[in-house]
Structure formats: C-alpha cells, structure tokens
DNA sequence: AACATTTTTTGATGTATATCAAAATCAACT
DNA sequence: AGTTGATTTTGATATACATCAAAAAATGTT
C-alpha cells in the first residue's frame, strides 16, 4: 500500500474515495545520495514518506549549513510552513542515502483538504504531533547542556548515529564537531 | 462576541450551529495577578483567550522555574500536548497581571470536533500556526547568541518588555538575569 | 516620608564551549 | 596494497556566559 496513505491512517479514518484520490496524486521516485529534494525558495515542499532512505533538513547561517532535523523510514514529514502559508520553505532537504520516496505536493494536499474535509482531522493530528515534537526540541535547546542534548538524541533516535557522520550530528545539536568528539570520549 | 469564537473565525468558516455550541461551552472568569490557571499534572488544559491580562507558561528544572512562553491579549493559546494526547501538560500557567479569561476545556473541544467536523480545519490551521512559531523559537535557541535572542524578542514581542520583569525574560531567553542586565547595558 | 521588599546592576571569578591548527583514523578508488 | 580525500580526534588558547556575593535602584506598604 502507498505509504502516505498508510501513515495517514495512523491518525484517523480515511474513506475509500479519499484514499483513491490520494493514491492518484501520490508521486513515487528514487533519489541518489547527496541529491536534493527541494532547493529552498524554489519549490513548494510537501508531505512525504521514505520507503527507504535517510534525509536531513538544513538552512544556511553565515554561509554555513545548520541541520534542523533528520528523517528515516516510517515517518511522515515535510515543512509545515508551506502548508500553512503556501509559501516556500527556507529549508533545504538533502538525501543522505540512496532513497525511495512517496510524496504529495502542497497544491494537491490543499485540494484534497477541500474535496475531502474529513482529511482535516488527520491534518490536525499530524500538525499537533509535530507541535509536541517541536516543543520537546525547543526545551532541549533551551535548558540542556551539549552533552545532555547528545544523550537525548541517543535515547530518541539511536539509529541515526550509525547512519550519519558526526559533523552533521554536531550541527543538529548546535555545537562544533570538536566539542561533540570530546563529549563522546567521556 | 465571545473572543474564542472571534479567534476561531480568523482561521476558517464557522457555521452558526457550531458557533452556538462553542458559545455554550465557553467559560468566562477573572483571575488575580500571581494566580495559577493550571497546576501541572492536575487539570487538562485547554484553548483560551485573554480579554485582558498577561500570562506566562513555565516548568521546573532542578527546582528552578523556566519560562517557555508569554501570552497577551488577542491571541489564542493553550498546550497542544493535552489536546493531542489527552494527558495533562507538564507546564504551569500563571497570570502576571489581573486578567479576564475565556476558556474551553479539552473535553469540550474534543466533543465539538466530533459534533462539528468542520472545526478540524480550524484546529489544523491553529496547530500549523503553532508549528511555525515553535520552529522559529527552536531556530532562535539553536543558532542565536544570548544578545541576538534578546534582540529577536524585542522585535517580535516588544510590548512584553514593559510588562514583565527581567528575571522572567532572562529565564525565557535561557540566560541568567545578570547576563541579561549586562546585554542591555550594551 | 520611612521602611521593607523586590528588582536590577555591578564586580570577581569559574566553566562550558568555540576557534584554529594539526595529527590520526577511516573509507573509497585504482 | 597504496594513494587520495573525508572524517574524527587531539591540543592550545579564546570567549560567552554562569555563579556567587553584594550594592544600588525601584516599588509597595504603613
């Protein structure tokens, strides 16, 4: 089954008509390691699911890349900003491994919301779950030391550490790679 | 007009039946400065609006209070966590001025979502807007220095500074009051 | 107005993390 | 297996911010 539909069904009921409509608008494609999904400011991003693969979201600050999150299999993600404002995201999304992707564009999603208002319950649940995740992330950045943030990451997304290099992890944690190296040495 | 309804209408259409149902479930009350709205873990929080007043949300860390956000007039807020999970928030909410409040409980809100599914569009929009705000907050904590975070606060919520003491502001920014004082001195 | 309480500022010193430079290790390719 | 480039670690030093203590200023109360 289309993994977007599979993810949607975790949040609420989907009529078979809505399911068919989503099916017809789902894009399926493959990307190579280092490819970009979205160039910031170019394309409206959308919700998507990795059947297989790994991605990072990042933006530029003083010419340097800053990672904001990582995505693995069996998650639904995308930028909320374009869904909410209909404007492009400032985030770039890059594949860190060869990946198989199912995606739905913002335009299609908004049309689906119009045609099948029942989808708004699922959209609400997804946005609410993202709020909870972002709240935890803010608190972690607000009060935890570098080493505590690293421990939190190990606890919450342990598999990431074996798939992503330490430079990317350090950037996500908001510290330098040197500091992360020293933290790991204990 | 009931300011909860007023806020809801900023996000989408509300049928007159739904409006009446919300009206009937809205609680209206007054609170004194220093009162608490919710004690964490006790009561399920809800969406609410300040007709007049000022609040802070905070939690405890190592016995000390840490502020997570402030709320003023003409905003809708509450913790998403209880709405999403139906479990109490870890946050405490305290009034920083004598306040007039309109509120709707999580139980009532969830019943309204069931009775008037159209409300899910509004709920989705609200959650999506909160996502955008939380994303900005995370980025601020991720990459900005103490002084930059202070400047961002001045830019985004200038009126807060004249209504809230510097201890509360410093806690919100994730720095000590002494550091904030030195930042302000330039 | 005088006193008590709260809030803000100042000073001295300590600590976590950044920066810069280089070495060591690992991975990829021929 | 040897060479090249990427990743990770190590060392020396700098900086932003914390901590502790106290003074100064502002605010509230009788």
Automatic annotation (TrEMBL), chains A, B:
Record-linked PROSITE patterns: CNMP_BINDING_3
CDD domains: CAP_ED (cd00038)
Residue ranges annotated for the Cyclic nucleotide-binding domain, each copy included: 27-112
InterPro entries in alphabetical order: cNMP-bd_dom (IPR000595), cNMP-bd_dom_sf (IPR018490), RmlC-like_jellyroll (IPR014710)
Residues that span the membrane, as ranges: none
Source organism, top-level taxon: Bacteria
Protein name as annotated: Crp/Fnr family transcriptional regulator
Organism: Sphingobacterium tabacisoli
